[in-house]
Design goal:
With 321 residues, the chain is an all-alpha fold. The chain is built from 15 helices and no strands.
């Protein structure tokens, strides 16, 4: 399917397909928030490089099935894939995993949860701009939902982390927000410039571009973790769990999540797609509650309801254009 021309409202079928792809990507990306909690004794660098090494290996295997299309990519496509891989993959997850380990999941999840607002606002200054009076209602509802959900979560921070770790975790989470505000907007605009580029081919290309970066990162990590008594480089104290989770993230969150997001980016205006990253926030909260064996309180449930309502308002706003 051809990408949506700038300024044109998506047809109903295209809109439904795009929202479904964004939902699938969000459910898969939510996994990245709980894995650092499952591997608390693994340094953030090992989580980031391990995940994307898995992504790169999977992309290398898949490349043989899509070799003719990959050979048609131009030099600027590969440079863009490398750029997206560095900032949107390696650095983003490095910042995020470090923030989660320093401040636990609630604070980074809250800050990452602002991405639907931030991306929608930044994207709406582009060529696909929707009148602010139509965009703002959904953003206000989503922002209120984020605040209510995280009011419950932030109440746990004082007992879970010290002030220094809390502050550093917040800075790293903000860096992750910057990286992932830049990534979907840049990725979406590139896909619109290259309408013949398929979602699957572009996902594989990003994985192939990520592979050497992750391999170099792993190599440099060996110098930091080679000291006796430190981290047991390269697989750590729980090698089977580590390898299994890294491959799971590489396959599900990285390759399949990227593929679904590319499809959503082709079908939806960037300002709407940005709002739909709220699915990642909802999935992250759900997985964190499951991991902790706890149920969300009434305030959190109300916030979740508002997040879903905000998405519905956003979809309707673009349908009405």
């Amino acid at each position: 399917m051809a990408p949506l021309p700038a300024g044109q409202a998506p047809a109903r079928r295209t809109l439904v397909e795009g929202v479904a792809c964004a939902l699938g990507a969000g459910l898969l990306w939510g996994l990245v928030f709980v894995v650092p909690l499952m591997l608390p004794d693994y340094p953030p660098a090992m989580l980031s490089f391990g995940r994307y090494l898995g992504f790169g290996v999977i992309a290398l295997l898949l490349a043989w099935t899509d070799l003719p299309r990959l050979q048609q990519l131009q030099r600027q496509d590969w440079w863009m894939a490398l750029e997206l891989a560095l900032l949107g993959n390696i650095l983003y997850y490095l910042f995020l995993s470090a923030a989660i380990q320093l401040a636990d999941a609630p604070l980074p999840t809250m800050l990452i949860g602002t991405l639907p607002i931030v991306i929608a606002i930044v994207a709406n200054f582009g060529s696909e701009a929707l009148p602010w009076r139509r965009l703002l209602p959904s953003l206000v509802v989503i922002a209120t939902g984020i605040a209510l959900v995280n009011r419950h979560e932030l109440a746990q921070l004082d007992a879970q982390s010290g002030a220094r770790d809390y502050f550093l975790g917040a800075l790293l989470a903000l860096a992750a927000v910057f990286a992932w505000t830049w990534y979907p907007i840049r990725n979406s605009r590139w896909l619109r410039r290259r309408p013949t580029l398929t979602s699957g081919t572009w996902a594989i290309a990003q994985g192939l571009a990520t592979l050497p970066l992750a391999a170099i990162g792993m190599l440099f990590a060996s110098f930091f973790f080679a000291e006796p008594g430190g981290f047991d480089y390269p697989l750590g104290p729980r090698p089977l769990r580590y390898v299994g989770l890294m491959l799971t993230l590489g396959l599900c969150a990285s390759w399949l999540g990227t593929l679904l997001w590319n499809r959503a980016s082709k079908r939806l205006p960037t300002a709407l797609a940005g709002q739909l990253i709220v699915f990642e926030t909802l999935a992250a909260f759900a997985y964190a509650f499951i991991w902790r064996g706890a149920l969300p309180g009434g305030t959190a449930l109300l916030g979740i309801g508002l997040l879903v309502g905000g998405v519905i308002l956003g979809v309707r706003a673009f349908r009405a254009v």
